[in-house]
């Protein structure tokens, strides 16, 4: 299967990506069939050369059945070459897992236990003072 994806280039701490058409099983920075653009994340977002795409060739390969990676799909959507992908929303990401909910429940019980033990003694003390 063919994929339109990014291939990393550049040096350490200075990334630069080529947008390429490659076989899905090929390594990220390995052999590719055609270069379709590039992406330079070091440039400001509004800079014209931050993302450069060859729209005609990308449309050609998508028509032939090439799949587009998530990040490249976002670039294509912003450039108007292809429809923008749906935004993914993981609503369960912020919900604590079972182990964390057990720990929170145990902490709440621990904090409530001394307060409950102190409450009857505090109520009894003013009642005794009033009788004396």
Kindly list the characteristics that best describe this protein.
single chain, about 130 residues, alpha+beta
Structural account:
- With 132 residues, the protein is α+β, with helices and mostly antiparallel strands.
- It has two domains: 2-79, 2-Layer Sandwich (S16 Ribosomal Protein, Chain: A); 95-132.
- Helix content is 40%, strand content 23%.
- It contains three helices and five strands.
- The chain has a five-stranded mixed beta sheet with strand order 4-3-2-1-5.
- The termini are far apart.
- The mean pLDDT is 87.
CATH class of the largest domain: Alpha Beta
Overall structural domain count:
2
Q: What series of H and E elements makes up the topology?
A: EEEEHEHH
Cα radius of gyration in angstroms: 30 Å
CATH architectural designation of the largest domain: 2-Layer Sandwich
The total strand number stands at 5
β-strand percent reads 15-25%
The largest pleated sheet is described as: 5 strands, mixed
Structural class: alpha+beta
**Uncertain residue ranges:** none
- Placed side by side, the strands forming the largest sheet appear as 4-3-2-1-5
Element layout with pairings:
Layout (H helix, E strand, L loop, with lengths): L1 E10 L2 E10 L10 E6 L11 E3 L1 H9 L3 E2 L1 H10 L18 H34 L1
Parallel strand pairs: 1-5
Antiparallel strand pairs: 1-2, 2-3, 3-4
């Amino acid at each position: 299967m063919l994929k339109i994806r990014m291939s990393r280039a550049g040096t350490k701490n200075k990334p630069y990506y080529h947008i390429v058409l490659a076989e899905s099983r090929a390594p990220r920075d390995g052999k590719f069939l055609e270069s379709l653009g590039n992406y330079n994340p070091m440039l400001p977002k509004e800079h014209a050369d931050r993302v450069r795409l060859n729209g005609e060739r990308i449309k050609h390969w998508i028509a032939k059945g090439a799949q587009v990676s998530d990040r490249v799909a976002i670039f294509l959507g912003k450039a108007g070459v292809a429809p923008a992908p749906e935004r993914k929303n993981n609503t369960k990401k912020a919900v604590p897992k079972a182990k964390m909910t057990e720990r929170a429940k145990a902490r709440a019980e621990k904090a409530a236990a001394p307060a409950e033990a102190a409450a009857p003694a505090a109520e009894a003390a003013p009642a005794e003072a009033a009788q004396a």
